[in-house]
Design brief:
Blueprint lengths: L3 H12 L4 H8 L3 H8 L7 H9 L13
Length: 67
């Protein structure tokens, strides 16, 4: 199930014309982690998510939850 982060990462990676493997090497995380984040896995290490988002100048932060 995709979520905002998975959609964001997938779109940005494709804009950068990187394969998942190339991107994982540049971000310093495993290929399985890139696959998991792009597939919308909800239990991911915040530290690794921030490594991925840092590739695009972003980091995780509080977002108001919609009710």
């Amino acid at each position: 199930m995709e979520n905002n982060i998975s959609i964001f990462v997938k779109e940005k990676r494709k804009e950068a014309k990187l394969t998942q493997k190339e991107f994982s090497i540049l971000a310093g995380v495993g290929l399985a982690f890139i696959r998991a984040i792009e597939q919308g896995k909800t239990t991911l290490k915040v530290e690794n998510v921030n490594k991925v988002l840092a590739m695009f100048g972003y980091e995780l932060g509080p977002v108001e939850k919609k009710r």
